[in-house]
User: What shape does this take?
Amino acid sequence: MFLRIVLCLLAVCNAALAATVIQRDVGTCSRPARSAVGPDGSVWIPCSSSNARLIRAQYNPGGAITLDNFIVPSLSGSIAAVIFGPDGLLWFVASNVVGKYDTVAHTATLYTLIGASANVNDIALGGDGNIWVNKFGGGASMVKVLPNGQMQEFFVPGGNARRPVFIGAGADGNIWYTDELTTKVGRVTPAGVITEFDIGSTAEGIVAGADGNMWATSDNGLARITPAGQVTVFPYPAGYSTNTFGIVSAPDGTLWYADANGAIGQAATTGVSSYLNLPQGSAPLYIAVRPSDGAVFFMEYNAQRIGVIAPATTTPSDTSVIEFYNDQLNHYFITSSAVEAAAIDGGAAGPGWSRTGQTWRAWLAGPLPTAALVCRFYGTPDINPATGLRRGPNSHFYTLEPAECAAVRQDPGWTYEPADKYWMLRPTSNTAAGCKAGTTPIYRAYNQRFAFNDSNHRYMTSLTLYNQMLALGWSGEGVVMCAPG
Assistant: This one.
């Protein structure tokens, strides 16, 4: 019989830094903050403690980060946050001013914020096509800024006892905010109607996810808030802090967020997170993602640095996935761990196992932008009192589709094995054409033995081998992953 081998804890298995991480000091730019990616892929970063200063960071995978400095004309005060508006201009909020900056002509238009002077921290583009900013310290409010600079102010309940620090546009057309002094998040309609919801702890960053919900980095974990205000909190992985801050949604539907204690988190919209440990001394607060290639940028507010995590497709793979076959069980098994493979070779998993010669590449230490976490499951060995048999098959199952992973995690017949994590690429379809040029399609076939509690899947790189399995009566499930190289 196959014996499950528990190899190591996640913190040990993923100690190596596989992702390509580049960091650079920002010189005279004091406290780099909430940034925006421009149409050309460059990142515009406000220097939130340097008067009127912006820097433009440019990065091409395989190269270094280059920086250019700019001073916004006529501006007195430091820029807290920036965003590109529908007019293609870089909108910003600074002290008691909202402005727009032409990144080509290097000219600016400034508008004095409506109402009493107060602190401002964030800026967002609303679904109504207007710019929204927050205010606190002189009466908490949300301000809608029309393209011509006209403004409307909507007051947050609680006045000076409230601090709406981060804001984000929802897929529902509304603006959402987090309150640093309470456990509330708020929803603001384009007309200024405010509704608040309690998420159980204070939160910082907030962003719309690919699932249509809002996601916030709260003290208790990642908080998912539906447009109707229903809240679900997903705890952070064990061993990681709750010192999370900025959060963004990536083109592949994942969420990336900054942990000021030196890590970057990636989460599926199922709420399952993985962490990338940055080089020692890192302290990211803000984060941005480039839509064109998924590169993740982070700003180290207190460390005077910025950094980038290169996309998976430009990062060398660091492990081989190895296939085994058991001639007694007629089962196939794969592992990304050389240690586990060696143990199986040595008989630790029982008799009958041998290597088939099939291998492909993957990333062992992630997460990496544009790569997907492969969820690994083992058939639950506990005995079901109703049947007297084990709950799950003596087999493993693998998927990188978030919805499928979430569904299997809810199945009592399968046990999630988080210690064996690795990353591959998600196909755009279940055919070989769904894998980009330069990657290898991975096919999946199923033995159709569910009725005997003997389910087993085989994963393979060869279409010929895949068709041979179908000829033996296995059910074809097409391409389910893409391997690098």
